Amino acid sequence: MNWTPDRPLQVAIVGSGPSGFYAAEALLKQKDVPVRVDMFDRLPTPFGLVRGGVAPDHQKIKNVVMVYEKVAAMPGFRFFGNVHLGRDVSAAELRKHYDHVVYAVGNESDRKLGIPGEDLQGSHSATEFVGWYNGHPDHRERAFDLSVERAAVVGIGNVAMDVTRILAEDPERLAKTDIADYALQALRKSRVREIWLLGRRGPAQAAYSPAEIEEIGELESAELVVRPDELVLDEVSKAETSDPTVKKNVDYVADVARRAEGSKAKKVRLRFCVSPVELIGEGGRVSAMKIEKNELVPDGKGGVKAKGTGRFETIPVGLVFRSVGYRGIPIPDVAFDEKIGHIPNTAGRVKPGEYVVGWAKRGPSGLIGTNRADSVATVQAMLEDARAQAARPDVARDARAVPDLLASKKLRYVTFQDWKRLDRLELERGAKAGKIREKFTTVAEMLSALESAATPA
Ligand code: NAP
Predict the structure, then answer these.
(1) Which CATH superfamily is domain 9-108+327-414 in?
(2) Which of 42, 55, 186, 297 sees the fewest Cβ atoms within 10 Å?
């Protein structure tokens, strides 16, 4: 064994979302190979999509950060926030300072529909909207025209459910959460009354979880409306209902379709077997969407895929959110497969000394907890390799080497202790505003809050 407590395996984890923290946990909890873990994030704040993705009205899900805080308190763990791989440090520099580098960078971009009119004003990705209401520094400056009455959300996964719920919910029910203040103000003025939720396949193939569609169906502020004629199942779909989750989803929308259309102020019109084929503009802005009715045909893998029937409809919408999945953003000098949209790997191994976890490894699927087993599997591969590997003589082994490198570049990195100070300040700001938390939404604001907090009064 080459690794000793005095010369531990040095690991850099790039990204501090769930997959990064589960990898750190698996590394620090094992006793076989002595390790030291440095975690980097391009933002000053940790926790990735738990902070910037999970919806503000789903606070319970965010309690998972308590697990990550315990990991951050373990000996051998350091956090370097506000350090962007590919901009502030290069992949080559990381390789000079670590035996293993783990990419836990998620999927920060989104898939496009590839239809005419997609780039018109008023057409957005769900990623932008989610980042905006969650106060993500990348998206806080975005503007969404909520003065229109009709919006469409394309795709029926759980992200589409979040976007729809935030549009359909009574803003006062969001007021005490950690929603960004500017987003709450904008939603209070929203005139959106009708939201079209568009699935290209049928109710048996819906990607949402039963709890998520039920939450929309039970909103006090909005009526979920489903057309019975779109719930007729073909033979393959009928067979798919042997899966209890599929059955729950199919049964729930069938129940909703039997309800009489009520008089709630907003409507969510869930449609199945329709695909947008064009966004129609007026003066450069979206004014309508042309959709094509689909039929379901065998996909050659035992399932069904959508096929256009040549029958079209036009729905008047002034705002469109595409929510058809995420994809990764390439990092300079790190492998990336454009076709699949993430880092190519074999069971988490990218190339010797480089590994990947989470969505960057397998694509944008699964819930937060899915990442634990996924990260553990990559860590097992890392430990297997480490046992067979000699310590490279060219790796800088002084614990000060990385802080010195960052200081030499005049980078103001944020430690986990710094983050805990920001966390306290956000909670205090929240308490003053009668909310759970008021986030800092720009990097400059975060750094200046840290400077002021460090200056004695
Ligand atoms: P997703 O679950 O993969 O759903 C994507 C949706 O987009 C599917 O309905 C898909 O339909 C549709 N789609 C893809 N390409 C399309 C196209 N060209 N035209 C029309 N529709 C298209 O992705 P997601 O909603 O982004 O969620 C990502 C992951 O995060 C999921 O695992 C999700 O469960 C998780 N998540 C969970 C929560 C929660 O638990 N509350 C919240 C947010 C996200 P097809 O099925 O036909 O491909």
Answers:
(1) NAD(P)-binding Rossmann-like Domain (3.40.50.720)
(2) 297
